[in-house]
Design brief:
The chain is mostly helical. The protein has four helices and two strands; from the N terminus they run E-E-H-H-H-H. Strand 1 and strand 2 form a beta hairpin. 6% of the residues are buried.
């Protein structure tokens, strides 16, 4: 059985096949998908370093939400028309809960910190 190659050469000229059409790789949909991919990679890269602050299950749940957003953006047939409302509410509730555990903000937060916390600033 022949081995499937991990490249196609279809996109060598700056376009890629998507939904039966050739679209520019620098179009807004692909930029958004690339940004979401980079975000999930950053979260995954540092999630194990910050389990004392954010449980691994929460980081992975966030990655799953991001994949859901990517599915909405990446469906060429637009079968998924919106991000699930409950997912948005769950994320907002989690942000609100974490916010209550923080001291009141008095100035801007400078990126940095131990155990992967500073690196998570890249993900935001």
């Amino acid at each position: 059985m022949p081995t499937m190659k991990i490249y196609t050469r279809v996109g060598d000229e700056g376009e890629t096949q998507f939904g039966g059409k050739m679209l520019p790789k620098n179009g807004p949909r692909f930029i958004a998908l690339g940004d979401l991919d980079e975000l999930t990679c950053n979260i995954g890269a540092y999630a194990y370093d910050i389990t004392d602050v954010i449980p691994l299950a929460k980081s992975q749940a966030l990655q799953n939400l991001i994949y859901t957003a990517a599915a909405v953006i990446g469906d060429p047939a637009y079968r998924i028309t919106e991000f699930p409302k409950q997912a948005t509410l769950d994320l907002e509730n989690e942000i609100d809960k974490m916010t209550t555990e923080l001291p009141p903000l008095k100035n801007f937060i400078l990126p940095g910190g131990p155990n992967g916390i500073g690196a998570m600033h890249l993900a935001r």
